[in-house]
Write a structure and sequence with these properties.
- This protein is an all-alpha fold.
- It has helices spanning 5-23, 29-49, 57-80.
Length: 81
């Protein structure tokens, strides 16, 4: 079951927003969506290479987006210093 584009934008935005709250970095809604979607792609690649399987559907996409977004924001904090 794939996630449609509209759902990917909504879920990616939510994942980016949640990660921004956790990492104490605030961006606008557009950047949250971008960070969430890119984070999901990043986490998907990391999880696949480590042979870790996450639940499918929107929940799996949200978890992957959240984890990947946290990784991206952590790297951004390191670069900002």
């Amino acid at each position: 079951m794939g996630v449609g584009w509209f759902a990917a934008i909504i879920i990616g935005g939510l994942a980016g927003w949640l990660a921004g709250k956790l990492m104490d970095m605030r961006f606008g809604i557009f950047m949250n969506i971008i960070i969430g979607i890119v984070g999901a792609v990043l986490a998907n690649a990391i999880f696949d290479s480590a042979n870790i399987h996450v639940a499918g559907g929107w929940l799996g996409y949200l978890v992957q987006g959240f984890v990947g977004s946290c990784i991206l924001l952590f790297v951004a904090k390191l670069v900002r210093r």
